[in-house]
Amino acid sequence: MGQVKGCKFWNNVVAMPYDRGETQVLSNAHHNVFSDAMRFDVLEGADNVVASQEEIALGPDGVPLHGSAAIDASSFEYALTNLTGETGLNGVRRGLGGGVDAGAFEFDWLPQFAQDLGGRGLVVTAADNAVFENGDGLVEIPSGDMSVNWTPAASASTSCPCTFKATVTGTGTLTVKKNGEVLGTYTQGAYDVNFFGSGTIALAFAYVPGENDEGGAVLSGFSADIGTMLILR
Fold first, then answer.
1. Which phi and psi (to 5°) does residue 110 adopt?
2. CATH number, span 110-224
């Protein structure tokens, strides 16, 4: 590589090793993720990440895998100045999951959100940029909306009891709609939300922050049962 000066080196992922014995100098470099095999002599810039190949963790198509060091390593200021615009080259909206990923691609958090929520047959269809995974396997909504389609196996042919856990940690209000109708509104506290459903159930969640709100709504534990079985001996 030698010396790279007089250009902007922003929002890139450089995962391959590159060392030809030259002095490695890179200026005006911001919000990049570099392989630790690069061995820079001078790296001028801010918020760059140096990580191992394993930590960078890209798929064969270059898209960050879950846990990649590239996830949330950039910012809107730097990512939106390049040619990918408001989405990554894979079509995923920039900032999905709470932060902007470094590089040309954005990790798609929607399947991860569905996995964290825990319901079989659950698909997250939309989520505002503020929605994120908190690292404990829970999905947090500090503000904005999230929508899911849920088809519990038990509800394929008959109505069944469904439940999920909602915890409001902030001063605002969480509104939950089922198939377009308000299922309930919830303020600070922990709730087991129960309802009956059949077929595919469309659920929409909207959290409106309150005054000086530093919390939000946390969702988890989606489950459905076809009924109760008693065994008499």
1. -60, -45
2. 2.60.120
Q: What is the pLDDT of residue 185?
A: 98
Q: How much is the pTM?
A: 0.76
Tell me the CB-side half-sphere exposure of residue 96, using CA atoms within 13 A. Answer: 22
- What b/e sequence results for 42-71 when a residue is b if at least 16 CB atoms lie within 10 Å of its CB, and e otherwise? ebeeeebbbbeeebbbbeeeebbeeebbbb
Q: Which residues touch 77 (CB under 8 Å, ≥6 apart)?
A: none
3-state SS string over 72-97? CCCCHHHHCCCCCCCECCCCCECCCC
Q: pLDDT tens across 24-79, in order?
A: 677 788 888 988 877 676 777 778 898 998 999 999 999 999 889 999 988 877 66
Partners of 206 in the β-ladder: 145, 175
**β-strand pairing of 3-4 with 25-30:** parallel
How are the residues of the chain apportioned to helix, strand and coil, as percentages rounded to the nearest 5?
Answer: 10, 40, 55
Residue 84 has pLDDT above 60, yes or no: no
Q: Where are the domains of the chain?
A: 3-79, 110-224
Dihedral of the alpha carbons of 203, 223, 213, 178, in degrees to the nearest 10: 20
Strands laid side by side in the 217-224 sheet: 132-133, 139-141, 217-224, 160-168, 189-197
Task: Report the SS3 class of residue 37.
Answer: coil
